[in-house]
Amino acid sequence: MTDHSASAQPAPKPGDLLALAVATARAAADLVRERAAGVVEVAATKSTATDVVTEADRDTEALIRRLISQERPEDGFFGEEGASEGQSTAGTSGVRWIVDPIDGTVNFLYGLPRYAVSIAAEYAGEVVAGAVVDVSAGTLYAAFRQPDGSAAAVKDGEPVTVRPPAELGQRLIATGFSYDAGLRRIQAEALVRFLPVVRDVRRIGSAALDICGVAEGTLDGYLEEGLHLWDHAAACLVAEAAGARWEATTGVGGRRFVVVAPAHGYDELRKAAVQAGFLPVDSLPGVVPD
Known about the structure:
The protein has helices at residues 14-36, 55-71, 105-110, 181-194, 207-216, 229-241, 266-276; strands at residues 42-45, 52-54, 76-79, 88-89, 95-103, 116-123, 126-134, 139-145, 151-155, 158-159, 172-175, 200-202, 221-225, 244-250, 256-262. By secondary structure, the chain is α+β, with helices and mostly antiparallel strands. It is built from 7 helices and 15 strands. The strands form 3 sheets. Strands 4-3-5-6-7-8-9-10 form an 8-stranded mixed β-sheet, sandwiched between helices. Strands 12-11-13-15-14 form a 5-stranded mixed β-sheet, with helices on both faces. Strands 1-2 form a two-stranded antiparallel sheet. Helix content is 32%, strand content 27%.
């Protein structure tokens, strides 16, 4: 009898996982682009009436699952949509794929060109490869973790890095808002206190692209409460590899709060998030539910 347990199998090569993530993300982006050229309609809602799912979301995740399982049938899967919405499918290889088929679905629905396909590969609890495709622009952000723990980030094959140091008042920060009205009110109140201490705030509508913006230096930081692991897994690896620090902790609304910034300015931005009321005063880094 063959032993298919993760311990009996050799560790996967992150570079190979990245190659599969990239090829799959590109194929998925082609499908999303094709669907964007037609009529896009809401198929269902999730947490609230404004938290929508389109048939393109579902079909794209199905494509991603199929392409990955063809190459690696023993891997696990954690995706936003489909029959296993919000549930992780166990595998036997130790690899879990973390997928957001369309990050920025409302932008996609309205025809705003800021949405992405995000695919990350996790091994032994650590994200080791990630690919994010800006569907409208066709831009690919990617990174994988070397055996020594180091990583390098690229945009369309060219290295990217975070912006140089700047005073907090000269930093452009991206954020987003929950679909839950109560949490959105908390976020708005915190934003009123936060906005005067930075250069400005952007609400672009795709967490993955916001975080990749930190990686490539078009943004000085990103923070938001209410994310799920699939929203940021791939992009945070890209940002980390480009010189950023990031953290997933619990925000004042009790949900996953993610903050990303260049390592040289991370502590100051995090402190400002606490002072504005995005984070509890006693907030600490730690593991939060997917």
